[in-house]
User: Which sequence fits this backbone?
């Protein structure tokens, strides 16, 4: 922490700040400048709340320096984590592709899409049985029946199932039927859910919150890991900004930003990240070119009839085209340069 | 819903869109213009997902018209809801003041603050026993022990207790010890928690999410109400923007905006809404002047030693000054004009 | 400036950073911590660009400490500036009210509004002769003819004229006919225009840019003042955020934030700041309650026929009601507490 | 335009809205629904200001439908514009690369960078002689002397010069020495400057404003084109959001979004778009993968000593590596699919 004193702070103000720092068990290092004094604080093990210092007499600003990361950090583990899901993986040399419908609607739909996904060489199938919907009157998913259909897909195709849990009891069910627990953007700071997922044996795909700072996202992963589950995949899915030509603004700079701080793999969701069918392909290519470890893509056999998020779902043909394009880009840039 | 066709859409494209609308059970009304045709859609009972229409041939844009509000809406209930909490209330003629420390730290602290709050004439006491913290390593609250201290405060002072529940089991505990269930900003779209609160006999104070649109906030309230609990108080606590001189940007226009659509009362949180002690007073005054039904304020007997959010907590003296100022403003503007 | 070294930075990395700092004419002060070293930099007279340091080996982060304010700063001038405009003023004890139509449309309209404004006791009349419009095909204002009408209003009523200049030649014209030069939000960082206004004898009303940080806004004022014109009034008019229930999000926390750093007066524009007629009154009250030195309000004799920004303009009756309400609030809070 | 009436609007309210529409010269088409009436408006040639309708009795909402684009629109010109600059071009089959230092500092620096740029096969050289700086005390550029150095580079290397004009007199100078006029983000809505550039014979590179909506950006281009200059290149350079891991958030979805509406070419600025050296390479690749027509890149021979924006400038070696990577990606995706 760094405390910057006001230009007119007195010796006494400085002494008082030093006293409070010492009382809290830290060490103050005053550095007088030509116009004002700065006080560096050392000796803190974890993060210190800087805000109370702002109210002390003579303090102009308190600036946090140490970042409170531990298990997510490259300081702890310099090499990238490869999350293994049976014989498939995310974060390794191969580009991970996770595809499927937004919501599980019925057996026919799911199998039609799954067959195309399997044939494309993707190893992961996505589909929601529990749907977080803005309105209580919108379709909320098939629940356990949906999970059973997904388990059948796994049986029939060998695809690994990625599906969302909305609450702690949902994690119990997902553990029974699926392979990867998805935590949605709206739940990124649902700390009870994060802790429960941290006690699971399944890997966790953690979506970035709608307006999450990088630190908050990584600390959400830290919640999962602090319970003992180190298999976390981060998913950038767009953030909320003033822009209205997209549903969300896909922040691809998050990929190099995460890489610089953390060893966790990052996948990109160009479907929710844009909200428009015609943007999914160019942004999927861009995500891979920026160094993503994988993509999560919405595909539907009849997008115009989809019960949720139809506008952004690709048709089966569009999906196949996308897979060949992103693989070609992945081949060009591999081994993925970090920047 | 309104569907705008492209300038070069053919008769056939229009017919196909009309066919899909009809197939979904709605009625299309085509209005040809000089350069393009628009198709109004009627006959939908609830909200329709507009997005799938965007992918039909010849469609330029699909625009949602009907808002999916039901129980929160002034259409249903034109007069403002007054939420009763025992002999106190929020939304009535008197300005509701909810004050107390961010976190319950210990008995002494809580009683010192509570005594000042009671003496100020406020009817509600706030204090967190379960704290949602960005880092898993930060102080997480005293849990049930904290709730017990709050229950003692209620016993001793008659103040009504407002406290946050982070998950469904937390609601069980809050119901046992407190008077109003607070749902925090990070949980505004934790739909399982909203439904659980909707099945409670206690009123719910629902904070606006960090980047929640007005519609999403009202629909979160709709989740609670759709389970049968109509006693919901909305709380504006600032939203996340690019600005960095405040922790959040307090959006006071939310007060008249909610009023125009909904009968639910609105309170303002200038403490989290600004994050700085020196901003709490002017923004509290502003909230009341904008027509808020109440304020929720952080007060601490030793803000510089507070375990969470110390920078924004008022001292006991500042709090007493604030109460007299906001009451004077409330007297000037009453009966609160809607705009 | 503070430079934070990485945990694995070597002695040599630190020495190199110190060398670069010294070479630039500054003084490095290394403070070794348990896990990493921080280097405080002193000796810089003005702002230093911190970014190049980020690319030196072993550097984790470079943090700017000194703010590059000079003439706008309370360090230079602790007491608030009162901007005098003939016998009227902004920043003094009386609440300054600046009212009038968005655009000057014709003589009849302007005089109808001006008569009401004068009668209300306001001292300033606003009206645009040059309108910055998003589309080149929208009404762009009457130009010099509009200024002439405004000068007639001044003659007839004694009201001081506040009107916008869009470019350097516009400042020449505004100087000829009006009393205060308004710089619009879109031009807040039009540095050539700021410098030209800085060489004017007229006071400048400087609107905050649509997404301006506090520092950028104050430095725009610094541009004007650095040319010798110290009569600057800041105007908060809402910023662009994700929210869609308002045209802009009015950031009233800017009032105490400016106060803490600068001696310049601040007025609030609830008309552009909300974009909706029904929000102007509550937000005007809120602005005054937050400590604003004045308001700038759009009024029109026939808002439904206004050629620009009609939705937010008040009717003459609404305006008169607003003036009495905000004066009552101003009386309650005076002398305006800083927070 | 579409006007949605309130549920409780009377026949008379509807008749009054129809009357106003007719009075304005348009045609109303009322479509009664089960709960409310909508009124479609046709007959308008250009954009209509929707806002005044909001204040009429019984109106719930007024929704703009027609977009006010004309010259920028694919409706007018379906094939993409190729902007020719002598024997070079932007928008054609070849990826356009514009590279050079942020600011022209001295002859040696500029020639050192230019030699590398020429050797890489790029056709455009960038460098600022007039620098828009947030602080009046920061380095403002060499002015005309800088332009003369750039003209020497052109002479010596054949590279086309892209450089910024800050005001109308700056355009005069840029026309004398350079090949493409850059309009910076802060000036995107400096309408006097846009009009002046529209009367130039040189192509214009128009950067997106810090918080510009897509419509506003395209209408800024419309300003240039409405004066007769059709050679406009759009440049996405990141927008301002809450995120702090980057200087700006690069919005690559702007590429397909512009393509769908406009025939103008789009280039990406990953240097300002991220603000960090280590992010430039991955985001440059991403921009090309998303379908950009070109890149504008900051390169410096000694980034750690750069007088402006040093942190984001690439070294000469990094730049050469970048060019080979983005060309490989461009080869893979050509012919650039629109989505």
Assistant:
């Amino acid at each position: 922490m760094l405390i910057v004193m006001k230009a007119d702070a007195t010796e006494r103000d400085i002494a008082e700040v030093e006293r409070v720092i010492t009382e809290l068990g830290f060490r103050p290092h005053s550095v007088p400048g030509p116009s004002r004094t700065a006080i560096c604080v050392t000796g803190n093990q974890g993060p210190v709340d800087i805000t109370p210092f702002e109210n002390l007499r003579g303090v102009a600003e308190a600036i946090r320096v140490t970042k409170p990361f531990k298990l997510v950090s490259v300081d702890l583990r310099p090499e990238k984590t490869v999350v293994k899901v049976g014989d498939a993986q995310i974060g390794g040399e191969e580009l991970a592709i996770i595809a499927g419908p937004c919501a599980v609607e019925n057996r026919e739909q799911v199998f039609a899409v799954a067959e195309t996904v399997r044939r494309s060489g993707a190893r992961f199938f996505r589909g929601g049985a529990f749907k977080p919907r803005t309105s209580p009157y919108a379709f909320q998913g098939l629940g356990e029946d949906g999970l059973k259909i997904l388990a059948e897909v796994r049986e029939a195709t060998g695809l690994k199932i990625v599906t969302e849990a909305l609450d702690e009891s949902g994690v119990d069910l997902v553990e029974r039927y699926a392979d990867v627990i998805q935590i949605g953007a709206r739940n990124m700071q649902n700390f009870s859910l994060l802790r429960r997922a941290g006690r699971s044996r399944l890997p966790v795909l953690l979506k970035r919150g709608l307006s999450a700072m990088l630190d908050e996202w990584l600390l959400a992963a830290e919640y999962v890991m602090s319970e003992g589950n180190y298999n976390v995949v981060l998913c950038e899915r767009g953030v909320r900004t003033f822009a209205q030509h997209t549903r969300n603004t896909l922040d691809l700079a998050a990929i190099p930003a995460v890489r610089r701080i953390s060893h966790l793999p990052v996948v990109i969701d160009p479907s929710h990240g844009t909200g428009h069918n015609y943007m999914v392909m160019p942004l999927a290519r861009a995500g891979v070119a920026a160094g993503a470890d994988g993509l999560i893509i919405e595909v539907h056999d009849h997008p115009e009839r989809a019960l949720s998020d139809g506008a952004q779902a690709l048709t089966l043909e569009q999906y196949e085209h996308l897979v060949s394009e992103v693989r070609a880009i992945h081949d060009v840039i591999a081994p993925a340069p970090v920047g």
